[in-house]
Amino acid sequence: MLRLLTNWVRQIYDWVIGWAKSPYSTWALFVIAFAESSFFPVPPDVLLITLAVAIPARAFRYASVCTLGSILGGALGYLIGYQFYDILGAPIITLYAAQHHYEGLQELYQRYDAFAVAVAGITPIPYKIATITAGFFDINFPRFMLASIVSRSARFFLIGLLIRLFGPFIRSFIEKYFELLTVFLFLLLIAGFVILEWLL
Questions:
Q1: 125 phi and psi, to 5 degrees?
Q2: Is residue 71 scored above 90 in pLDDT?
Q3: Distance of alpha carbon 56 from the chain centroid
Q4: Using CA atoms, how far apart are residues 131 and 70, in angstroms rounded to an integer?
Q5: pTM for the predicted model, two decimal places
Q6: Are 89 and 132 spatial neighbours (Cβ–Cβ below 8 Å)?
């Protein structure tokens, strides 16, 4: 099973690497970052890292595109929660098995306000859940946007900085320890939901 998983991820990794030479690579990064903040399951970090590792000189450019897409996508997630929760928000929340967290999320927002969004923006907690529920619980929108800007910028520009500084080393490290990194990324995804359970 693990071998199948790593082979599948390896194919995706090799395919995504090809985007670095494509004229549409930047758009692909923007679209994935935008979609992930409101409904898409795959985090944009994977594509950001792949593209930046392929061309370290563009690491900050890719980080900027990823940040912009994620922030705008977060605004869409907020709108879904605020205006279209029954039609769109509830099915998305159900898809990620977070529908039983209503009261806990509401208490979290009442206690920490938009800071809860900032935490989700940096940690493995699924950001889409934070954006949709922020809209649903009517968190102050300017504070929500500020928290999104700060947290998503910090996350993606840190990745860009590390790759800009250690690009060749990181690329060889990924190639050498790819299977271990695949397991780590999978565990990190699970950790996001575990953290959500622990907080609530």
A1: -55, 130
A2: yes
A3: 21
A4: 11
A5: 0.73
A6: yes
